């Protein structure tokens, strides 16, 4: 049963990392492109690290401290680094597409 759980977590993690990587390449501007690595890839890496924790804890009958520390570091640094990059892009007045600016007017839909 443990192998099934580890396999499912690895597949889920791989799919999220793939989706985040594709989003990094395919999104039209920097602001939208930043969501791929910070959201989907972080979730994918968390899933992969949980699978690694389960594998190590069942094979060695001990708690895996390395994966826990990596998870904490990843979950703390990804949002902070994304925030800093966004603030820097805003400061440097980086161009973006109209959809990113959030200036959607309801009267335009009518």
From TrEMBL:
<dbReference type="Pfam" id="PF03334">
    <property type="entry name" value="PhaG_MnhG_YufB"/>
</dbReference>
<feature type="transmembrane region" description="Helical">
    <location>
        <begin position="6"/>
        <end position="25"/>
    </location>
</feature>
<dbReference type="InterPro" id="IPR005133">
    <property type="entry name" value="PhaG_MnhG_YufB"/>
</dbReference>
<protein>
    <submittedName>
        <fullName>Na+/H+ antiporter subunit G</fullName>
    </submittedName>
</protein>
<keyword id="KW-0812">Transmembrane</keyword>
<keyword id="KW-0472">Membrane</keyword>
<feature type="transmembrane region" description="Helical">
    <location>
        <begin position="37"/>
        <end position="56"/>
    </location>
</feature>
<feature type="transmembrane region" description="Helical">
    <location>
        <begin position="68"/>
        <end position="86"/>
    </location>
</feature>
<keyword id="KW-1133">Transmembrane helix</keyword>
């Amino acid at each position: 049963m443990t192998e099934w759980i580890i396999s499912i977590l690895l597949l889920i993690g791989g799919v999220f990392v793939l989706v985040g990587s594709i989003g990094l390449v395919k999104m039209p501007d920097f602001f939208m492109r930043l969501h791929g690595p910070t959201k989907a890839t972080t979730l994918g890496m968390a899933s992969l690290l949980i699978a690694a924790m389960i594998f190590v804890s069942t094979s060695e009958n001990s708690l895996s401290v390395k994966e826990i520390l990596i998870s904490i570091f990843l979950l703390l640094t990804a949002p902070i680094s994304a925030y800093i990059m966004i603030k820097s892009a805003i400061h440097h007045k980086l161009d973006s597409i109209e959809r990113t600016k959030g200036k959607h007017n309801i009267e335009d839909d009518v």
